[in-house]
Write a structure and sequence with these properties.
GO terms for molecular function: lyase activity; metal ion binding. This protein is an alpha/beta fold. The chain has 2 domains: about 110 residues, Rossmann fold (3-Layer(aba) Sandwich), CATH 3.40.50; about 100 residues, Rossmann fold. Helix content is about 40%, strand content about 15%. The protein contains 8 helices and 7 strands. Helix 3 links the parallel strand 3 and strand 4.
Amino acid sequence: MRSPTLLAVAHGSRDPRFADNARRLIGQIRRLRPDLDVRLAFLELSEPNVVEVLGDLTGDAVVVPLLLSDAYHARIDLPTVLSTAPAGLRVTQAAVLGADDRLLELARRRVDEVGVENPGVILTAVGSSDSSANARTRALAAQWRISTTVFATGESASLADATELLRARGATEVVVAPWFLSPGLLLDRVRAEAARLEVPVAAALGADRLVAEVVVRRYMSAITTPVPALI
């Protein structure tokens, strides 16, 4: 019996680095699970579009959102698109990547790669209109002893304010830790602001093997415990 197709769906961006990172991640997933049919699609702005890819599939598919937050795109946008899947295609939506231990380990590694000993850490992420999603993101910063969170969109403290806060709490050095899967225009804005403050910024999580492992974990969990689409 053929295993369901693993369809990884990212948001998409006008920045080509975003799609390039997603394609490299798909390569990692295929190396981990060469037995699976692994596809990539985007909600918007990048190709191929998820509607187009769904039209090419038959049988069963598990859609893994390449998203770190369980907010609007995962709860509304993606389920709405999946509800238009062609007849004969059975689609299950997996959980978002979220605060998996592997991703937290990778975020810590990215900070360590900066080479600053025991820094105060500003976790920066895309903000959401969902306050509970923002609260879950803020909780991730607790893995560093002196830390705070700044959202790159929406109402949030500035990097300057966050840097001042951490130094007031005893941090002699500060590092920005992006809770982003990929480089892109939004992270460029964060880097530009941090550069003005002379604060180093760690790398995005990227197409690391640990990210690929989380995608496969979400796929396997969805096969046994499907996540209901919220439309």
